[in-house]
Amino acid sequence: MATTKANLTQFEQELVDKAVGAMEKAYCKYSGFKVGAALVCEDGEIIIGANHENASYGATICAERSAMVTALTKGHRKFKLLAVATELEAPCSPCGICRQYLIEFGDYKVILGSSTSDQIIETTTYGLLPYAFTPKSLDDHEKEAEERNHQEGEKKH
Ligand SMILES: [Zn+2]
C-alpha cells in the first residue's frame, strides 16, 4: 500500500530513518546506488545493513540480505519488521533474490522508504513474493511422500 511517512507509527518512522542512515554504510563504488536496511528482530533488537558491491559484480550483496545475515549470525531467527531505503523518490522494491531470502523466515511487515521523499510503500514478505517457495514447501513434500509410501505399502498387503 502506498502512503506517506507521516502515516507510519513513530517507531516505524524512526526505523525508516535508521534505514536511511544505514545507506551511508554502503560500498557501492560501481553503481553509486546506496541502499540501507533496518531489521527488527523478535526481541526488539534492530540490525542495520547496506549494499556492498564487488568488482566481480555477482558477488555483490544487497542491504536486505546484509542485515539478515548479520542478524542470523547473532542468533536471531524471527523477525517483526524490515525497513529499506534508497535515494529514489518512489520507494524501491527488494530484488528477487532478497524476496526469496526474506520469506525463508516467514511473513512479516516490510516498509519501503526513501531518503529524498516521504513516499512509503507498506507490504509484507508474502506481499512481495506471492506463491513463494518456502520451508513449508519442503515439509509438505516430505509429508506427501510419506503418505504415498504408506498407501503403496497398504496396497501390497
Ligand atoms: Zn536484493
From TrEMBL:
One GO cellular component term noted in the UniProt record for this chain: cytosol
E.C. numbers: 3.5.4.5
Claim: Hydrolase is one of the keywords in the record: yes
Cross-referenced InterPro entries: APOBEC/CMP_deaminase_Zn-bd, CMP_dCMP_dom, Cyt/Deoxycyt_deaminase, Cyt_deam_tetra, Cytidine_deaminase-like
EC top class named in words: hydrolase
Binding, Zn(2+): C62, C95, C98
Binding-site positions, substrate: N51, H52, E53, N54, A55, S56, Y57
Keywords: Hydrolase, Metal-binding, Zinc
Example GO molecular function: RNA binding
Keyword Ribonucleoprotein in annotation: no
Catalytic activity: 2'-deoxycytidine + H2O + H(+) = 2'-deoxyuridine + NH4(+); cytidine + H2O + H(+) = uridine + NH4(+)
Biological process according to GO: deoxycytidine catabolic process; RNA modification; uridine biosynthetic process
Active site: E64
Known cofactor(s): Zn(2+)
Family, per entry: Belongs to the cytidine and deoxycytidylate deaminase family.
Protein task: This enzyme scavenges exogenous and endogenous cytidine and 2'-deoxycytidine for UMP synthesis.
Protein name: Cytidine deaminase
